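Review this today:
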Amino acid sequence: MVQGPSVQARQICGDVHIHQPPVQLPGPLPPPCQLPPLGLLLGRDADLQAMDAARGSRLIVVCGPPGVGKTALTVSWAHAVRAGFTDGVLLADLRGHAPGAPATPGEALGRFLRALGVDTRHMPGDLAELTGLYRSAMIDRRMLVVLDDARTAAQVSPAAPPVAA
């Protein structure tokens, strides 16, 4: 019994490629919510208030040495404000201080675009084109984007919101 695509041939010269149609979902994707579960956060009320006060700037940078609770603070704040972001919440761990190589901007943008429903067949390989597609997909959306554990500004800048005119 054969399930899925099959090829029967006496002799094959070269490669064989079998293409299947993409999986079709029964409707539009729900707004993404990529936040991890909410943990217990104590003693950070002033930091949460500072993040609330900075919300109008459209870009909040939380910095400090590894292990001081920046991720826990940011995730807690994101859970508290996510209802105001009706088009969803995207999160990428950029692995800036993790063992191994940090995530590339293209990896993060690719994950975000897939979460937004962009077909992978339409994703360019060039970072500039990928950034343009991401920014086009984000136009007129009210979304929260969390970029965690960045090592450099170059990891973050392609996914940062454009400066308002």
Remarks:
- The radius of gyration is 20 Å.
- Residues 45-159 form one domain.
- The first strand starts at residue 89 and ends at 93.
- The longest helix spans residues 70-81.
